[in-house]
Amino acid sequence: MSVRRVVDGSADIVVLEGPCPVEDAETLAAFLLESPTSPVDLSACARMHTAVLQVLLRLQPMRRGTCGDPIAARCLAWPHSNEKNGQAAD
Fold this sequence. Notes:
The chain has 3 helices and 6 strands. The protein is of the alpha/beta class. The model is unreliable at 83-90 (pLDDT under 50).
């Protein structure tokens, strides 16, 4: 599995490693919904399926490192906002 949870002191960190296939999206979402303040370390992620990317874009966890997948890295680098035109987006 390329998604795992690591205890770092008193906090959990979600680590993405190697290729992260579509099957990892559900695991990642479950980890982040259980512990929404957990940061996600992307520094060891080589490739990322778009389903995994969508989980990160939707749940907006704090991120560490840069993903090795150039398309995912560019998408995650864009500023994202939960608001559009002054109104909360759903």
